[in-house]
Amino acid sequence: MARLDRLRERLSAAIGVVRRNPRPVLFFLAATIVLVAVAGAIVVAYYGRIVEARMEGPRWRLPARIYSAAWVVRPGDAVGADDVIRRLVRLRYTDSGKGEMPPGQYHLSKSRLAVSIRDRESAEGLVRGGKASIEFSGRRVAAVKSLPAGAPLAWVVFEPEVVGSVYDEKMEDRTLVRLSDVPHVLVDAILATEDRDFYSHSGLSFRRLAGAVVQSVFRRRSVRGTSTLTQQLVKNMFLTPERTLKRKAVEAFMAVIVESRYSKDEILEAYLNEIYLGQKGSVSITGVEEASRFYFGRSASQIELPEAALLAGLISSPGRYSPFRHPDRAKERRSVVLKGMLETGKIDKAAYEKSLEAPLTRVKGPPAGIVAPHFVDFLMKQVRAESPEAREDGLAIYTTLDPEMQAAAQTAVRGGLEEMEKAHPRLKSADEDQALQGALIALDPATGAIQALVGGRDYQVSQFNRVVQAKRQPGSLFKPFVYLTAFTRRDLPKPITAASLYLDEPIAIAWGAGEDEVWVPKNYDGQFRGKMSAREALEQSINVPTARIAVTEVGPKQSLLFDIVQTARRAGITSPLKPYPSLSLGAFETSPMEIAGAFATFANGGFRVEPTALLGFVGPSGRHVMSRNARLERAVDSDALAVLVSILQGAVIRGTGASARRLGAQGIFAGKTGTTNDGRDAWFIGFSPRLLVAVWVGFDDNRGLGLSGSAAAVPIFAEFVRRLPAYYFEVPFPSSPGVVTVDIDPVSGKFRTEACPQSFAELFVSGTEPTEPCPLHGVPKPVPVPGPGVPPSARPGAVP
């Protein structure tokens, strides 16, 4: 009691002082109120600027999305119904059954596939879809028709696949959507589950907030399950995900600011684009539009009640309720959302019961990713080079990549290297950085469009792109440029033809200003074979006859070497080339992409093309379409090229590339192996008029592989093309009117006579064909020479 009395006395004294002189006290109170008001205004202004900076400016960093080439199906294509459906499933198409078929659905009935094709964006703009039927005869497309009219179509085009995305540091995948495009059923499902009073509160639910305080202070629990939709938006857009009372207070304060400055529809639209709804590897799926495409394979504007309820149920815990990983939990959670919608009068009892029985989703699991990281790296460099001012944020980039081909390439390279290591344990390294490596590029030789690119064994271990960045010696891969040059020179005293004979014997070639340098070419196996034709030398990749051709005198102390350099330059090789004798055997460095682009000249009839991955892109600054109207330049003589291609066809029939056919590569194609000194580099390029494939195998540190191109690169090529549709290898090579076919004796290279025991249908540039009968086999009675034309594919002859 004594203490209480003393307290009363002090209080009375203080009141007396105030009554006698109130001004200082009033001034102090007023100052305190002003300071509190100023501090409050500063706080409001601070958080207000944060809100405005995000809500008024660019709200989100959008990923740059990279799309494959559009997929075209034509009558006659060597694909079956299962091939088409496999790609449709990857495009997130679903089986419609026998009911309605909105865009993004298909139905197979016996040998007829009906499909409703979605609209698609392209580098040129929006392309409308439509309905079509694809009819099959075995594993080939018999007809393509429009629906419902049934009119024949030359082709149908499906939308491209997403090859990859380039994200900011937050790794969020998002597709923006307007509130007006979101169906009411999805909005109803989200509000019934997350915030039933959204349109009536001012950003806070005081009942929920009181519960949060009780949980945090008295029960010492983390703050959860108390936020309004506006508070969730504030948390996701402006704050960290921690659950503390302090952060909750800031969240509530900012929610009030947001509600005071923006309409309910603006807030709801931002929420629909910001909410986290799942994970795709290391990438977050953000927003209802991206989530709808991920879980259902279609836009949010097309989803129905069961799907809307599932999306709304995912908000609280996307991992726990994923329909792909936890379908039972997802179904239970969906039923909770549906019940909430029934309680709030958003749906009736019949819709509720029907939705409970609906499947969670018709798509078969998460979308399969396309493995093309080296391609994406090369592509982005091409985008920046094409338009340095283009921002990656929000770009839609349209490319030349074929997803099926890319998957086959990845499998072939990785599997081929593993098989080599099993067969040759010395090649296997415990250090991943020192592992055996391979690279593959496949392109359309008519346009240079890159359809598949594998820059190494494992991108996670090494991002070095061996297709583009590696500089390696091509070795024997360069020999076709020697022979093409030789066949082109029709002004020589004695024209060089495929039937010309050369000695495969030791030779020392003097060169240099004073001929003080001596080069001694050797064959890969160290053996010599005597006299042989130019055809056999190239088919079997024999070094010495090739070197003899390269240094054949065409005038005083001259050779073909300068012409060979020019031939390679015109075809597209830009690496440094010196007219030294060793050039004829590929003693310089180039990249797989560069040599592949040059070989495309052989496949397309003699026109130079540049390898490219980019069709165009669309971004905030507009639309950029790559020009494809440039006039093609003829790079090499078409007649000489026809002779060369026939020899390279022979190389895969009976030459160094013949194992490709034994390993499963079929159809019309030509090719050339390449092996460098000590087997450091193993190459093979195979090509048809529709496809060119270059394969390299070796070690990054340039140590010896000890395997030839036939042993190391050809198996990867064969495994790759074996997985492709047959139509890539069904078209014959271009003809040339200035070429004649002559039956010759393969030993003498002259006209075959009736006495000759063997014959071979050889090609010659008109005017260079032999004029003498074979003198080796009895009475020379020549067989009539057929007129000019294009030879049949080189048939097996008795070439020694």
Percentage of residues assigned to helices: 25-40%
Strand order of the largest sheet: 11-1-15-23-24
How many beta strands in the DSSP annotation?
Answer: 30
What sort of overall outline do the alpha carbons produce when their principal axes are compared?
A: elongated
Alpha-beta classification? alpha+beta
Characteristics:
single chain; alpha+beta; five-stranded mixed beta sheet; 23 helices; elongated
Q: What does the model show?
A:
The chain is built from 23 helices and 30 strands. It is an alpha+beta fold and 800 residues long. The strands form ten sheets. Strands 11-1-15-23-24 form a five-stranded mixed beta sheet, covered by helices on one side. A five-stranded mixed beta sheet has the order 3-4-5-8-9, with helices on one face. The protein has a five-stranded antiparallel beta sheet with strand order 17-16-28-27-26, sandwiched between helices. β4 and β5 form a beta hairpin. The chain is elongated.
Quick overview:
With 800 residues, this protein is an alpha+beta fold.
Please write out the topology:
Elements: H1 2-20, H2 23-56, E1 64-67, E2 71-73, H3 81-90, E3 94-95, E4 105-109, E5 112-117, E6 120-121, E7 126-127, E8 130-136, E9 141-146, E10 156-158, E11 162-166, E12 172-174, H4 184-194, H5 206-218, H6 229-238, H7 245-261, H8 264-274, E13 276-280, E14 283-286, H9 288-296, H10 305-314, H11 327-343, H12 349-356, H13 373-386, E15 396-399, H14 403-423, E16 437-443, E17 450-454, H15 479-488, E18 501-504, E19 509-511, E20 517-519, E21 530-533, H16 534-539, H17 543-550, H18 561-571, H19 592-603, E22 607-608, E23 614-619, E24 622-625, E25 633-634, H20 638-651, H21 659-662, E26 670-675, E27 681-687, E28 692-698, H22 709-712, H23 714-722, E29 739-744, E30 760-765
Parallel strand pairs: 1-15, 3-4, 12-14
Antiparallel strand pairs: 1-11, 2-10, 4-5, 5-8, 6-7, 8-9, 13-14, 15-23, 16-17, 16-28, 18-21, 19-20, 22-25, 23-24, 26-27, 27-28, 29-30
Helix pairs in contact: 4-10, 4-11, 6-7, 6-8, 10-11, 11-12, 14-23, 15-18, 15-20
